[in-house]
């Protein structure tokens, strides 16, 4: 499934087929040297394996958009004069760290969590043995040989779940991307219209990875707006920062709308540690800020008043992020 139709789209789920290489066949041959006549057929090489390997490139699943079938190289057949076939080359498919490979054939799930981590997905078939192997005192001219075995074949569902420490969530235009840009080196598009962010983004705050999740609206779990599929990217985060704009007419209602969508995606999301940011406080006067903070404190003790134009508030945010970082 892709999230937008331009070049920078992020593919975060895709089905592919993979196959280990076939083993090379064993060979049947006999020595041509006078009086010898013994078997000289070599073994086939094993087929190559298929691996997934972690990369930090978040768009690495994009290459599976059109090409869906991947096979490692076959092993080479054995030859005369006891020549064994070469092993087939392994196939290494790079996927973003945080990718889970759901094996649709055997039901097993494998995760790639680290950059350069290699995970074996499909083994190549064993190479067949040539007739030299079958020689014995009672059978000095064996004609037996083995065919190479087929490699393992699987259908996979690759699903990317970001490995982020903190997730920024909230209604559209709550100021999530603006905060990400200010706190990290991310350069995400920011605009005053809803659904500016069409795909999740990551930013790095001194080693603390922050995910900016596209805006949610009431009914997102029924497909409204951009839907809730992006919530998979905060499945593994420990902490959520729930951004609510000071422009909101009904803070508590806005809060509940988002919480309901989180809950409908999966109960674990509402159990995560949560901070509430009252954003864009430069748009309202101090008295109003106090009132609104008081209202939000009815829901949670973890409330911060924030504006990207107020350095003091951003310092508070940075302190909080450092505290979260230290607790990991
Ligand atoms: N005055 C003021 N405007 C802000 C502040 N933070 C963000 N904005 C503006 O609010 C609008 C929405 O900001 P974004 O950061 O794009 O909001 P978002 O939550 O990422 O929105 P979506 O991607 O649509 O979910 C933009 O016009 C920003 O310039 C703030 O602290 N003060
Ligand atoms: Mg945004």
Can you describe this structure?
It is a single chain. The protein contains five helices and 14 strands. 17% of the residues lie in helices and 23% in strands. The relative contact order is 0.14. The protein is of the alpha/beta class and 328 residues long. The strands form three sheets. It has a six-stranded mixed beta sheet with strand order 10-11-9-12-13-14, sandwiched between helices. The protein has a five-stranded mixed beta sheet with strand order 3-1-8-5-6, with no helix packed on it. A three-stranded mixed beta sheet has the order 4-2-7, with no helix packed on it. The model is unreliable at 1-7 (pLDDT under 50). The longest helix has 16 residues, at 311-326. The chain is rod-shaped. It binds guanosine-5'-triphosphate and magnesium ion (MG). Magnesium ion binds next to helix 1.
């Amino acid at each position: 499934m892709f999230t937008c139709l331009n070049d920078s789209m992020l593919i975060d789920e895709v089905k592919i087929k993979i196959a280990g290489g076939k083993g090379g066949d064993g060979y049947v041959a006999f020595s041509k040297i006078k009086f010898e006549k013994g078997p000289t057929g070599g073994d086939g090489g094993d087929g190559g394996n298929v691996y997934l390997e972690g990369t930090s490139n978040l768009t690495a699943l994009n290459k599976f958009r059109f090409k869906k079938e991947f096979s490692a190289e076959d092993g080479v057949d054995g030859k005369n004069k006891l020549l064994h076939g070469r092993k087939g080359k392994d196939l290494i498919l790079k996927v973003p760290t945080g990718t889970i490979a759901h094996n649709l054939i055997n039901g097993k799930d494998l995760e790639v969590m680290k950059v350069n981590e290699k995970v074996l997905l499909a083994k190549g078939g064993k190479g067949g043995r040539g007739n030299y192997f079958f020689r014995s005192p009672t059978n000095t001219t064996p004609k037996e040989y083995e065919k190479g075995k087929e490699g393992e074949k699987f259908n996979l569902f690759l699903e990317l779940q970001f490995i982020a420490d903190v997730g920024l969530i909230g209604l559209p235009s709550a100021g999530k991307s603006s905060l990400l840009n200010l706190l990290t080196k991310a350069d995400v598009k920011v605009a005053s219209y809803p659904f500016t962010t069409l795909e999740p983004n990551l930013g790095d705050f001194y080693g603390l990875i922050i995910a900016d999740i596209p805006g949610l609206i009431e009914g997102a779990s029924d497909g409204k707006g951009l839907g809730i599929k992006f919530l998979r990217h905060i499945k593994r985060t420990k902490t959520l920062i729930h951004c609510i704009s000071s422009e909101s007419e009904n803070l508590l209602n806005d809060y509940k709308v988002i919480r309901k969508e989180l809950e409908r995606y999966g109960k674990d999301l509402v159990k995560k540690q949560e901070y509430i940011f009252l954003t864009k406080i430069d748009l309202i006067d101090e008295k109003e800020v106090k009132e609104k903070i008081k209202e939000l404190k009815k829901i949670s003790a973890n409330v911060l008043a924030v504006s990207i134009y107020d350095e003091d508030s951003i310092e508070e945010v940075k302190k909080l992020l450092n505290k979260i970082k230290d607790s990991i």
